[in-house]
């Protein structure tokens, strides 16, 4: 009957949507973890212990070339003043990240240990949406901040229903 076929089609669409949603969530989680690992790895490099700005800037530039295209910048940050001391983005040096209105979904810039990686919510910097990952450099009051373009990842989401869109929200719906 028509109702049986309609009900079966609806169930199939719901099942397909659920499967796609679970796959997208898993891939997003993998992407976030990969950026956290990269940030943590960068903050463990010995070059940051010495504080030689020229050497740090050269290393940041070198590392930016090895990271995914969605990586927009790598900053070397003073956690006390919140000032960017060195960066792959020249216009970022001297900026205070407190002025960026960044909300943190995992930890914050007051992270207690070097093993913690703070993860921001998506924020606007100029006209660009960005996501930041910050890892304290062991034994210092400095950190590495990896800035990525979340829209690059968002374009990889698939849509199983014509005309639909995907929206990523936190556990509390924000």
Structure characterization notes:
By secondary structure, this protein is α+β, with helices and mostly antiparallel strands. The protein contains four helices and seven strands. Strands 1, 2, 3, 4, 5, 6 and 7 form a seven-stranded antiparallel β-sheet that branches. The longest helix has 42 residues, at 2-43. The N and C termini lie far apart (42 Å).
Topology:
Elements: H1 2-43, H2 47-50, H3 53-64, E1 71-78, E2 84-87, E3 104-106, E4 117-120, E5 123-125, E6 128-136, E7 142-148, H4 150-154
Antiparallel strand pairs: 1-2, 1-7, 3-4, 4-6, 5-6, 6-7
Short description:
Helix content is 36%, strand content 22%.
How much β-strand is present in the residues?
15-25%
Principal-axis shape equals: elongated
Q: Total number of β-strand segments?
A: 7
Q: Oligomeric form of this entry?
A: single chain
Rg to the nearest angstrom?
Answer: 20 Å
- Helix and strand succession? HHHEEEEEEEH
What is the rounded distance between the termini? 42 Å
Low-confidence stretches: 165-171
Please bin the fraction of helical residues. Answer: 25-40%
The average pLDDT value, as a whole number, equals 80
What structural class is derived from the secondary structure elements? alpha+beta
Task: Give the biggest beta sheet.
Answer: 7 strands, antiparallel
């Amino acid at each position: 009957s028509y109702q049986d076929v309609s009900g079966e089609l609806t169930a199939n669409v719901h099942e397909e949507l659920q499967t796609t949603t679970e796959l997208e969530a898993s891939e997003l989680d993998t992407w976030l973890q990969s950026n956290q690992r990269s940030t943590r790895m960068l903050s463990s490099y010995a070059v940051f212990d010495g504080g030689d700005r020229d050497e740090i800037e050269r290393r940041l530039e070198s590392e930016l070339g090895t990271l995914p295209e969605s990586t927009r910048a790598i900053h070397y940050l003073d956690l006390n003043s919140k000032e960017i001391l060195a960066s792959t983005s020249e216009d970022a040096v001297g900026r205070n990240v407190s002025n960026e209105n960044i909300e943190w979904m995992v930890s914050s810039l007051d992270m207690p240990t070097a093993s913690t990686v703070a993860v921001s919510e998506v924020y606007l910097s100029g006209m660009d949406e960005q996501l930041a990952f910050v890892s304290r450099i062991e034994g210092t009051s400095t950190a590495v901040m990896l800035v990525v373009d979340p829209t690059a990842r968002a374009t990889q989401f698939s849509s199983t229903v014509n005309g639909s869109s995907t929206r990523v929200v936190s556990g509390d719906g924000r």
